[in-house]
Write a structure and sequence with these properties.
About 25% of the residues lie in helices and about 25% in strands. It is of the alpha+beta class.
């Protein structure tokens, strides 16, 4: 099937390159781009949409997150349908953490009657 006029017009629009760099992220992870000078490709109708997406992406990448394993001496069953997004507050002075973390994995041991949580926060 041949290209329509709308296809040709869409394919010949002028391109706009939108960049966002965060000095804190570049300092913390200088090799994050694997020495590639080319930007990540994204297609947006407006540069404002591209900028908004880059701001959200930078917020996700620029926030240092740590992973913890938390053991509970009881069987805890989590039902996301009633509790919403499963999260827990992790407090550990030795690790220097006092944060609400997202549960990434829950393992209930029926034999030992324990629960192990892997959390990211």
């Amino acid at each position: 099937m041949g290209a329509t006029s709308a296809d040709l017009i869409a394919g010949t629009r002028a391109a706009v390159i939108v960049e966002r760099a965060d000095a804190a992220v570049l300092t913390a992870w200088p090799d994050a781009r694997d020495q590639k000078p080319s930007p990540t490709f994204g297609a947006f109708d407006a540069s404002a949409d591209a900028t908004a997406a880059l701001v959200v992406k930078a917020a996700l990448i620029g926030t240092a997150r740590r992973r913890f394993v938390v053991a509970a001496a009881d069987m805890i069953f989590i039902d996301p349908a009633t509790t919403g997004v499963p999260s827990m507050r992790v407090v550990d002075a030795e690790c220097g953490v006092d944060a609400t973390c997202l549960l990434a994995r829950v393992e209930v041991d029926l034999n030992d009657e324990t629960t192990t949580f892997e959390v990211i926060g």
